[in-house]
Amino acid sequence: MEERVRNGTSSTGSRAMILARMLQILCDEGVLDPHRNSPVVRFHHPKKLEGLLNLELGAQGLQECELLELCREAVSHSVQTCHPHFKNQLYGGTDPYGLAASYLAEALNTNIHTYEVAPVFVLVECAVLQHVLNLFGFPDGDGIFAPGGSMSNMYGMVLARYKAVPDSKTKGLSGQPTLVAFTSEDGHYSVKKGAHWLGIGTENVIPVKTDSGGCMIPSDLVCCIEKALSEGKKPFFVSATSGTTVLGAFDPLEQLADICQQYGIWLHVDACWGGTLILSKKHCHRLQGINRANSLAWNPHKMLGAPLQCALFLTQEKGLMHHCNSASASYLFQQDKFYDMSYDTGDKSIQCGRKVDAFKLWLMWKARGNQGFESLINNAMDAARYFKERIEGRPGFRLVLNEFECTNICFWFIPPSLRNMEENNDWWQKMHDVAPKIKEKLIVSGSLMISYQPLPQKGLCNFFRFVTSCHPVATLADMDYVWQEIERCGADIK
Question: Per the confidence metrics, is the pTM higher than 0.90?
Answer without folding.
Answer: yes
